[in-house]
Amino acid sequence: MGVPLVIFSVFLGIIAATIALPNERHKLSEKCTFNEDCATGLFCSSCSVEFKGSRCVRSLTTNPFKLLNTSLPFNKYAYLTTHNSFAIKRRPIPDPTPVVTFTNQEDTISQQLSNGVRALMLDTYDFKGDVWLCHSFGGKCHDFTAFEPAINALKEVENFLSSNPSEIVTLILEDYVEVPNGLTNVFIASGLIKYWFPISNMPKDGKDWPLVKDMIAKNYRLIVFGSQKHKEESEGIAYQWNYMVENQYGKDGMVEGKCPKRKDSSELNDRSKSLVLINHFRTIPIQKVTCKVNSEDLINMLSTCHVVAGNRWANFVAVDYYKRSDGGGSFQAVDMLNGKLLCGCDDVHACALGYSCTIRSK
């Protein structure tokens, strides 16, 4: 081989090594520089408390409805939930008053839903003659704690549901709206009423929810829970504590080996409530350490709460900065939950292969 041909061959080798072809994108936990370096379903993220530099970590859920089926009751599946879904770093609307409050997410609500989030925690307030989403205190919204009018976020949910006719979204409202029918009016204006799951169809005494396929067929694809008891009768907004149990949020709910209930909730092992919500996020959200919180610590807490809840696995797992982890993160946690719920295995993908890991008593 002549010298020019050797040089040309070496040059081609260098070119091939530097061009990132689609089938050469980095896999889970491999080092990266840009999001484009990572394979589909991953993004490039740092986690200085766990590793140096940046690695490809998960950014998409596994959809159990598509992977398996929709033939089981709604409460037999697990759903990734974002805490303060609206409190994102980039304020959704231009406003001269800066937000001086904590943020809990990076992505818009549309992006969250696109990546597989199926339950949103929203704080609703009376503000400026309308209903707003605020991360505030004392039951009052202020210019510096206000993120956007609630209808903006609700229209994002409506757009998702209209574009994805086989999906179900749950809204969990921390509600401070006192104007009569204030929430009802904004739901009507957003176009979400046509997806509303009626209270009359919600199970009592811990019974199973309707089959997912039947909910989809009837277009009952929006489930709304609220924190004000009287609105169940006055506005048809389900009072959260009639239907689910929930652990303590923040620092007090993250003690290793413990899973205390939230003050408003009945005991976690109360089987008269058929849904289980597990919170796992710090009192003060810090993005740089959330990657650790959303990793092995999350898996361990879900296992602890499973025991405390009378051997019931969570249906909703609520986190901050849902994409931040050291690898599989909240997505792997939900895969585990769906595996446990659907076939008793540690990962929902085992269910898809026909495995059953449930230990049967003799």
Summary of the model, kept short:
By secondary structure, the chain is of the alpha/beta class. It has helices at 3-18, 64-67, 109-114, 150-163, 182-190, 212-217, 231-234, 287-293, 296-308, 329-343, 348-352, and strands at 42-46, 54-58, 79-82, 119-127, 130-134, 146-149, 169-176, 222-226, 238-239, 244-246, 275-279, 316-319. Helices cover 27% and strands 16% of the residues.
Describe this structure in words.
This protein is α/β, with parallel strands linked by helices. Helices cover 27% and strands 16% of the residues. The protein has 11 helices and 12 strands. It has helices at residues 3-18, 64-67, 109-114, 150-163, 182-190, 212-217, 231-234, 287-293, 296-308, 329-343, 348-352, and strands spanning 42-46, 54-58, 79-82, 119-127, 130-134, 146-149, 169-176, 222-226, 238-239, 244-246, 275-279, 316-319. Strands 3, 4, 5, 6, 7, 8, 9, 10, 11 and 12 form a 10-stranded mixed beta sheet that branches. A hairpin with a 7-residue loop joins strand 1 and strand 2 (54-58). The relative contact order is 0.14. The model is unreliable at 3-21 (pLDDT under 50). One of its GO terms (biological process) is lipid metabolic process.
Number of helices: 11
Record field, number of beta strands: 12
**Mean pLDDT, nearest integer?**
92
Measured between the Cα atoms of the first and last residue, the distance is: 73 Å
**Rounded Rg:** 22 Å
Helix content: 25-40%
Gross morphology: globular
Question: Pairing-aware structural class of the strands and helices?
Answer: alpha/beta
Largest sheet at a glance? 10 strands, mixed
Top CATH class of the largest domain:
Alpha Beta
CATH architecture of the largest domain, please?
Alpha-Beta Barrel
